[in-house]
């Protein structure tokens, strides 16, 4: 804990003395450290797409604009980098809110089976284009967790998105749910590239990527798993990972189980 000590001379007091005030500032310090660290990471991450946009625009201005082919390619690249900036900003805002404990949750019974169905439909085209098979839980399974619908949706989407991204063609991504005594276990398993043991804890840190160039190429912001970890914990759950290089990864999220509706 961090304690701040203030000594104040008592004004107008007949006896000379001081008043000592002890204040717990741990939470203030924690938020200040988070803010400082986030600003340092964020400025670095934002500079890359911004520098690319400026370089493309400058090359166009210096003459490339007159070559229709280069012109179009560069405009596309500017659009791609602008999209990357947009995603980064949305993720940064979310992580700042969740880390500071300021995400406004609406706690209710969330139909996890419906969110999984929606998520698999959303990623069906991407999976198909990569020739990755997507497998969901049995269709008659009804599973409710106690949490915030948008938060649970973000956890699920980030894990499935990663599983597809890091699984080469002809691989498989499987989403499963298991009801436990007081929790529901959500598993997202892939047959992808896997994560070395030394990186397994670090992938949950913000902006940590095992292979920076590869992840950037895949369009990641480096914040997905950090958001998953903070959201899971803020919703009273946890996240874990089992992985073997070259074989694949399984991410497991435990979330509080709703007291009714599960079958
Ligand atoms: P990114 O946006 O880069 O995917 P994440 O925070 O979601 O950021 O993931 C952090 C890093 O963890 C990724 O860059 C990648 O190296 C690794 N990773 C995440 N999910 C998987 C997975 N299913 N298989 C292999 N590596 C993964």
Automatic annotation (TrEMBL):
Catalytic activity from the UniProt record: ATP + protein L-histidine = ADP + protein N-phospho-L-histidine
Keyword Transferase set for record: yes
Enzyme Commission identifier(s): 2.7.13.3
Keyword terms, alphabetized: Kinase, Membrane, Phosphoprotein, Transferase, Transmembrane, Transmembrane helix, Two-component regulatory system
Enzyme class, UniProt record, top EC level: transferase
Keyword rRNA processing listed: no
GO molecular function: phosphoprotein phosphatase activity; phosphorelay sensor kinase activity
Every Histidine kinase domain range: 41-259
GO annotation terms (biological process): cellular response to phosphate starvation; regulation of DNA-templated transcription
Protein name: histidine kinase
Organism: Pirellula staleyi (strain ATCC 27377 / DSM 6068 / ICPB 4128)
Residues of the full protein shown: 199 to 461 of 461
């Amino acid at each position: 804990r961090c304690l701040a000590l203030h000594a104040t001379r008592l004004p107008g007091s007949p006896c000379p003395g001081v008043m000592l005030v002890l204040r717990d500032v741990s939470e203030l310090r924690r938020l200040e450290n988070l803010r400082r660290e986030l600003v340092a990471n964020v400025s670095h991450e934002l500079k890359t797409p911004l520098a690319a946009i400026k370089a493309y625009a400058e090359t166009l201005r210096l003459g490339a604009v007159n070559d229709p082919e280069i012109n179009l390619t560069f405009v596309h690249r500017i659009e791609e980098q602008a999209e990357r900036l947009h995603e980064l900003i949305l993720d940064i805002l979310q992580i700042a809110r969740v880390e500071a404990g300021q995400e406004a949750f609406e706690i209710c019974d969330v139909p996890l089976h419906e969110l999984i169905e929606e998520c698999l439909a959303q990623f069906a085209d991407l999976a198909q284009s990569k020739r990755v098979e997507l497998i969901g839980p049995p269709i008659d399974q009804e599973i409710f967790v106690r949490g915030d619908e948008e938060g649970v949706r973000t956890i699920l989407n980030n894990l499935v998105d990663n599983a597809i991204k890091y699984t080469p063609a002809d691989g498989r991504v499987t989403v499963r749910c298991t009801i436990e005594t007081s929790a529901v276990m959500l598993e997202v398993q892939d047959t992808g590239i896997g994560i070395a043991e030394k990186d397994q804890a670090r992938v949950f840190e913000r902006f940590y990527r095992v292979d920076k160039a590869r992840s950037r190429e895949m369009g990641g912001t480096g914040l997905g798993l950090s958001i998953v970890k903070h959201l899971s914990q803020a919703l009273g759950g946890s996240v874990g990972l089992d992985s073997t290089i070259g074989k694949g990864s399984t991410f497991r999220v435990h979330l509080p189980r709703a007291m009714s509706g599960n079958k």
